[in-house]
Amino acid sequence: MARAAAAAAASSSSSSSLLILLLLHAAVLASLSGAVVEDLDQTFKETRVNDIWLVDFYAPWCGYCKKLEPVWYEVGAELKSSGSPVRVGKMDATAYSGMSSEFGVRGYPTIKLLKGELAYNYKGPRTKDDIVEFANRVSGPAVRALPSNQMFEHMMKRHDVLFVYVGGESPLKEKYIDVATELIVYTYFFSASEEALPESVSLPEIPSVVVFKDGSYFTYDEYEDGSLSSWINKERFQGYLQIDGFTLYELGDTGKLVAIAVINDKDPSEECVRLKSLIQTVAKDYRQHFNRDFQFGHMDGSDYINSLIMGEVKVPSVIILNTSNEQYFLPDGPTDSLEELVGFITGVLNGSAQAYGGDGIVQRVKRVAFDARSTILSVFRSSPVLGCFLFGLPLGVISLMCYGICTADSEPDVGDMELMKREGLTDEEEEEEEEEQRRAAQLEGPENDDDDEEEEEEEEVEEEEEEEKAPEQKKTD
Ligand SMILES: *[C@@H]1O[C@H](CO)[C@@H](O)[C@H](O)[C@H]1NC(C)=O
Ligand SMILES: *[C@@H]1O[C@H](CO)[C@@H](O)[C@H](O)[C@H]1NC(C)=O
After folding, report:
1. CA-closest residue to ligand 2 atom 12
2. Which residues are identified as catalytic?
3. Count of C-beta atoms within a 10 Å radius of residue 123
4. C-beta 84 within 6 A of ligand 2
5. What is the mean pLDDT of each run of 10 residues along the chain (477 residues)?
């Protein structure tokens, strides 16, 4: 890095002061990098026990790992300079495969925070700020105290969704701490005495677990809401969200249906604005009816949804997605009024609405064809010449062969034909297996608009799906 900067400095005489600055920066980074990120080997298993570690398990050949590397040094530098107790390391998971599989590493790169017996997977965006925030959150106490009203107000400003245990020692508090220890990968957990809450908050009983969000607060009810952890998992998002591919993937864990207004943010037409505010109204005013089963939001643009459902949705329109089985629901008629929209959602809830898509065999075959088509189209779009060469050449050869076969005298051997057919079928089935995983990952995972990165992105998404199956938190021994 320093050498590159030096070369740049030599080749250009202007803006030299900036370059000197850059050079200094590079030199500082280079001198720091040895210290801030430690290269881990097989001794890690013994040496790690007394510290909290943030580890990047990488493979030397993986493109995403290379992209992460500079970010990782920044993460290391920031944690170090902020005085965090978290030590940052990286381990070549291919060289120490035994140890990394003990840590549950199944894709690259895998980011884990290791804290005593606990291991937490990081699944968010791979940016410095997000990773540092994760490390600070997860390395700290599972439940943080809010000793005063000022502190409470301060945290309310900083967090859109705030979970607070209110009360003294109790079995509920113990349960809350257990759940917090597991779900701290998603959000912060606080505890406070009743006095620390604003006077406007009145709780039916103490102790309670309360979530503050959407300008209001909601109390956990053991009898209505099921287990505390499933309630927290469902309540950890605001009632109404701007949704993108990544949010959709995150929402998958809640098991809720996702009702989305597909709109164009740049289109100020009345239709778009009205639909968005209708969905917002339903999210707020019909919370009692729908909150347990639905997450509401809007999505800007229809490309993501279109590739998800392998079709085309109108903009603006409403669609309800079931991320667990990949089914989706579209309204039969217009949804211009609150009644129509609520009727549509009720229909989905009571099972009377028609479901489309799903993960059946027909859909899987359709997905194979759809992906093949998009791949071919994207190759042609980015490079028509390459496209003609890649797909035209084999086509030409096949046509020539067909021509040869058709004009030949001999009858085709029936036995061979049948064999070919059967082989063809087997191939297809194998493909479907693979495709199933890929397609599932696509529904859950973030999608990249950039055609050039499509391949790589899929690789990443697949491994994220694998992690998904692993429990959020794993005893490492
Ligand atoms: C969504 O999918 C899950 C898993 O297949 C299923 O149990 C649930 O009933 C579906 N929900 C609706 C409303 O179809
Ligand atoms: C389901 O909801 C729709 C829309 O509100 C309603 O018209 C229909 O009668 C309901 N069906 C059942 C079986 O409850």
Report:
1. 350
2. 62, 65
3. 19
4. no
5. 43 47 49 71 86 94 94 95 94 91 90 92 93 95 95 94 96 96 95 93 93 94 92 95 90 92 86 91 94 94 88 90 91 90 94 86 82 78 72 74 68 40 40 48 43 41 42 40
